[in-house]
Design goal:
7-stranded mixed beta sheet; 7 strands
Amino acid sequence: MDYIIRKANLDDREAIELLIAESARGLSREDYSEQQVESAIRTVFGVDTDLIVDSTYFVADSFGMLIGCGGWSKRRTLFGGDRFASRDSSELDPRVEAARVRAFFVHPEHARRGIGRAILSLCESVARTNSFRSIELMATLPGVKMYRACGYEGSERVEYRIGEGMSIEFVPMQKELQ
């Protein structure tokens, strides 16, 4: 499959939202219930406009179709799109704080072909050039395997409330940038 990785722009938001929903529905069923997936799409998963405005969010574009997305952030928010209430857009200090890996999703038809890894590698490289020495993320359960293969550490699950009577588990992970 031919694709390019490019910076996301505000015109991509609708396509990114659709990609996120398709990815979550298609790749999360082994780890989360249908109710958890749908609640997460409504409350947590989604576009974080700050990342697009900061030029730190990327998409894998295959002839005009978005097949992957993900980014890094210099802001405190660890996860969650625009709809997620617990957001802190203040900037991190790269001398003492870790950059954030954010909102990685791949279209189910293009999963396990290196798209996520390619975007992640780019994010790590750019974070490094912005003086960050470490990077952290809040992995969805389906993403843990890829992040581990890319050198991230962490295995303890944490539970987050994502709706009335609904919660979802994530795994905090981190990596030192060389």
